[in-house]
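Data availability (excerpt). The following record was deposited with the supplementary files.
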Amino acid sequence: REKTRQLTRMSDRVRDINAALVDSNRIKDRYVCQYVDLSVYYISRLDDLRRMICRQAKTESPEALIRRLSLPQNSLRQEFAEFYRRFDASFLEIFPRFIEQVDALLLPEARIEPRSPRSLTTELRILAAIRLGITDTATIAALLHCSIRTVYNYRSFTQRHSRPDVGDLEQRVQL
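Predicted structure:
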């Protein structure tokens, strides 16, 4: 009987491990598809930009072209807004309970409220990057187009405001 119970426990453990592996593979497959989609989108955008520059270089003076290319701030903001929208949507598709899982690790007064249901705040994007295995502050800052100080401040804030029983918040986020 004891051997049967041990065998049953081991069988249950193997089943749980297999389920976790299947889930992990599903997440990786989805993330790869999202990455490919995003890459194709930006390659297309770069090609459109290249064509527009070539067309304008043929019809405008070099000074006019330089003036036009010197004013991309609104366009750049729009591109980052689109990147954030796509990142948030794909991340939340892969990890639909991420926000509530993070909130469960934080003190009630420090819970992070997203601006809309399918978007992440900067704090949540930083934790999302950590969840994806990106832990270097400079890399996160480059990915999210913000300063290293901003990333450091948000990381410190969330760690300071985690529940006492959580321990290392970032380590828990990675699980």
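Summary of structural features: The chain is about 75% helix and 0% strand.
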